[in-house]
Amino acid sequence: MGTALVYHEDMTATRLLWDDPECEIERPERLTAALDRLRQRGLEQRCLLLSAREASEEELGLVHRETQVLGKEELQALSGQFDAICFHPSTFHCARLAAGAGLQLVDAVLTGAVQNGLALVRPPGHHSQRAAANGFCVFNNVAIAAAHAKQKHGLHRILVVDWDVHHGQGIQYLFEDDPSILYFSWHRYEHGRFWPFLRESDADAVGRGQGLGFTVNLPWNQVGMGNADYVAAFLHLLLPLAFEFDPELVLVSAGFDSAIGDPEGQMQATPECFAHLTQLLQVLAGGRVCAMLEGGYHLESLAESVCMTVQTLLGDPAPPLSGSMVPCQSALESIQSARAAQAPHWKSLQLQEERPPPLLPGGPVCKGAASAPSSLLDQPCLCPAPSVRTAVALTAPDITLVLPPDVIQQEGSALREETEAWARPHESLAREEALAALGKLLYLLDGMLDGQVNSGIAATPASAAAATLDVAIRRGLSHGAQRLLCVALGQLDRPPDLAHDGRSLWLNIRGKEAAALSMFHVSTPLPAMTGGFLSCILGLVLPLAYSFQPDLVLVALGPGHGLQGRHAALLAAMLRGLAGGRVLALLEEDSTPQLAGILARVLNGEAPPSLGASSVASPEDVRALMYLRGQLEPQWKMLQVGAFTPQK
Ligand code: X5A
Ligand code: ZN
């Protein structure tokens, strides 16, 4: 399907003509630095290049009251009428190109010409208001694109994610009473002491009238927010609402002044974080994501972050995040206050705002903070990009029909003697079929551990699923994986003699009750409905996984896993954010080719199908989640959502 890159070099023309320390950071080099880096990395070449066109008067009129063309001498005087604006003779042309680029991108995505894309534009847009330029922004590119998607394409639900470090108050004002546009913005706020110094940037501004709950503000009250804070904000605030909203299109106000090194933002998130944010958004709206550049003033950080975003739009797996994944106290307070402000308007937040239930009686208490493998967590788990993104080692011949051309069908098997040696302790692996399947799995796993293959799918007879998984875990740990995450669905027991040494984290989703037997051995019931499934993924699986920072993920759909195809696809798509996408899915041999096909496509970078309007999590699902959160939060910090202290 592809990724569009919309650009026009004319947008480098507008620049500062007089001294102005506030405006000087918004320079033409922002675009050239980003574009040069995209070229250097071979990313531009992989995109569909679209040359930006000017937006028409009528298109600008979707959002703006009137536009005027001025002579040069009037520009400086006019600039003085606005906050943080410096006009140039070319500004209007550039601004019309910037707005036009957004329109082209939305058209390309909504007509199916591409799956997603990025518009590399100047001037930025999200501060611009109906009749006022503001904060380097002339026309509100994203708002115009949203209005156009509604008017020309008939869309009813558009999610706007504003990850720029400033509050896009322009977008908020334009859509504050519009329930068809869910606007999310995080921003440096410092209790109102940071530009644009607005009371309405705080978490309690939630929209008005019909639009109540469709404005979501997450104010950062301290600088220095990093990867853990940003990912936590997505998992615990944005994504629950976004899934409930079920957008048809995602627009991103992609400002990179929220990245490390930026003089405006003063934040700490590394460029890789934007790969993760992008990947997390790609599970929405069938993957229809249109990103438009907003701020970003540190050229190096900007260029890298743009590359990360484009690379992820192209379907490459996100590189592992560096640094410890522990959100800071101030971030947790902000996330909690935004959740509290939104809770009246969103079912997915309501149940979770209740007091946590007491610990289940008689359950074993989780211990393990002392055994947290801090030294292991410091080790980088970097591997060069594998030549094969996804390989499939299956026996069913009709699988080829549903696979994209770049997914490799693996023929090879591990050596017979070696396979037998691994199988020996397991009675269930004695049968020829089981042994043959194990040989294929071992070969695939070795390819992944050697760095030739990024992700894969293997199958096993149902009767040998547990034993095969046991071998896969051991093989992974003895052949290079430092930290292995195993997400096991259905009747699969944790290998009893697997050490609790921090090198593996076992998460079983099935079971009748939630239990944390140690911080590395967690079970939770499989929720029946979509709402419960989503809160399990966002509230438990991903926070555990992001805290653990695995370098290999096994996801096993064992006997009685009970997972629908679209749910399995979503789980795989989201687990792909871990371990640099090094994910091995293990299926039962009699799984449908449809299931294998959809998992292969998702592991290969395709968007999972959207889940549609979701039901609410059941009280039992919520109880299980709250219980495990209470048990595990002290060890796995990404589970924290703020404000609630687990009972000791
Ligand atoms: C788009 C953007 C920032 C304006 C800052 C004014 N604008 N001090 O990042
Ligand atoms: Zn900004």
The gist of it:
Helix content is 35%, strand content 14%. It is an alpha/beta fold and 648 residues long.
Q: What does this molecule look like?
A:
This protein is α/β, with parallel strands linked by helices. It contains 19 helices and 17 strands. The strands form 2 sheets. The protein has a 9-stranded mixed β-sheet with strand order 10-9-11-17-16-12-13-15-14, sandwiched between helices. Strands 2-1-3-8-7-4-5-6 form an 8-stranded parallel β-sheet, sandwiched between helices. The longest helix has 20 residues. Bound molecules: N-(4-aminobutyl)acetamide and zinc ion. Zinc ion (ZN) binds next to loops. N-(4-aminobutyl)acetamide binds next to loops.
